Amino acid sequence: MGSVNAAEVRDLVKKYGDFKALDGISFDIKKGEIFAFLGPNGAGKTTTVKVLTGLLKPSSGHVNILGMDIVKDIDLIKEKIGFVPDQPYVYPYLTAFEYMRTVGDIYKVPSGRQKKMIDELLEMFEIGDRAGEIIDSFSHGMKQKLVISGVLLHKPEIMFLDEPLVGLDPKSARIVKDLFVKLSKQGTTIFMCTHVLEIAQKLADRICIVNDGKILELDTFENLRKKDGSGSDLESIYLRLTGAVNGAVLPEDI
Ligand SMILES: Nc1ncnc2c1ncn2[C@@H]1O[C@H](COP(=O)(O)OP(=O)(O)O)[C@@H](O)[C@H]1O
Ligand SMILES: [Mg+2]
Description:
The chain is α/β, with parallel strands linked by helices. Helices cover about 35% and strands about 25% of the residues. The strands form two sheets. Strands 6-7-8-3-9-10 form a six-stranded mixed sheet, sandwiched between helices. A four-stranded antiparallel sheet has the order 2-1-4-5, covered by helices on one side.
């Protein structure tokens, strides 16, 4: 297992009952890269993220995160990674500030850094003036920004994000994009599931396209474009690869 890789996934299968949601996928994520994971609804993206963050056990195959085994070394791995799920599950009756302190304490973030960073992060996302309110009163986008702030507080080596831009206003989405670029320059690895193809095209070092639990392509945008031979944008390439290029047949009586 080489040290340049943040993650190594080999022949990963994940079954729900008899159904194979992941049908033997293998890929590496390099340290410090922005890795975009794309695919239609039901392709297996969330399942992959959940296995890579230890929330689900592989049915077979191997997952190695930062040189450690996801099944055996899960407690050590959890200290070094951050996860922003597609649904921001946050304790509804904590205030935003209490949530951040709780995250900081769980990850043993020194209190000096907590004091400074909590204010800065919440200010950055324009929820600083709501820090004393309970999370239950927050919109989806505000919860999302709080969860992202919590992950940034403990500076993980790898950030896994499942559709992080859903529900974010344009200004917040821009902040998240800028953060990804800054973090990856500092060596943080970013694994992101997204449907926002423009962001994948602009930001990602490599793009992985999955469908039906299998990898269709994994390459840089430039190489995907060369293989496609069309000079197209990622949207056209993605639609061709996933077989959706002609669009759906719309009901006649609509
Ligand atoms: N808990 C579950 N039980 C049964 N099937 C599931 C479960 N979670 C996901 N699936 C199925 O696995 C497939 C992949 O789902 P998912 O990983 O959520 O896809 P994506 O995130 O790409 O939309 C889908 O067919 C979905 O219905
Ligand atoms: Mg999903």
